[in-house]
Specification:
The chain is mainly beta and 196 residues long. The protein has no helices and twelve strands. The strands form two sheets. Strands 1, 2, 4, 6, 10 and 12 form a six-stranded antiparallel sheet that branches. Strands 3, 5, 7, 8, 9 and 11 form a six-stranded antiparallel sheet that branches. The chain is elongated, with a radius of gyration of 23 Å.
Length: 196
């Protein structure tokens, strides 16, 4: 087996803007253990960019059985500044592809029985339209004071205008609003690119 020792490979005619082919169809390109490969964001890098995660920075008031946009304003990370954490609370990746998106919601009906939480919904919206409902267990008469639900989905984005928003809903046992809140301790929203 021969080895080629170089510091840089560029296309012979274009000095960096042409196409360079490594290997032939059916061959495997191997990167040895301990070696790394760096490719700009959006490429095949082993790094799932763009990516972000944000959480609710403080409890957010809502009403019984009312779809509410969840204002996750505390960014944990945002690799490409694709998440708006202050105005629209939406993810707008500028790289096309499929993304693993995940959500967590903790809600509280604010009172004691029979004012408890009956069930919660996570409701992701893509481009202003509901994708699907993710519901917690319906406790009916055995209501909980606070409950949690998580959800995930693989969603495709066009890389230019598609966006994702996080909505939720709390359904109380008695239909009243004694202080219904989205709680910040387990309410979060995130996504990362997994492929083209």
């Amino acid at each position: 087996m021969s080895k080629l020792f170089v510091d840089e490979i560029v296309h012979q005619s274009s000095q960096g803007s042409g196409t360079i082919t490594i290997g032939a169809s059916g061959e495997t390109i191997s990167v040895p253990t301990g070696a790394t490969m760096t490719v700009p964001n959006g490429g095949l890098s082993g790094q799932n960019y763009p990516a972000f995660e944000a959480r609710l920075s403080s409890s957010q008031a809502t009403d019984h059985n009312t779809t509410t946009k969840i204002q996750c304003g505390d960014e944990i990370f945002d690799t490409d500044s694709a998440y708006d954490a202050s105005i629209n609370y939406r993810f707008t990746p500028q790289v096309a592809g499929k993304y693993f998106c995940y959500f967590g919601l903790r809600g509280w009906a604010g009172g004691s029985a029979p004012d408890g939480t009956r069930f919660l919904y996570i409701q992701p919206y893509k481009n202003g339209s509901l994708i699907r409902n993710y519901a917690s267990v319906d406790t009916d008469a055995n209501e909980m004071r606070a409950g949690s639900v998580t959800a995930s989905a693989v969603i495709e984005f066009n890389g230019s205008s598609d966006y994702l928003e996080f909505y939720g809903l709390i359904f109380t046992q008695n239909g009243l609003n004694p202080g219904v809140q989205l709680l910040n301790d387990q309410t979060y929203f995130g996504a990362y690119r997994i492929g083209a």
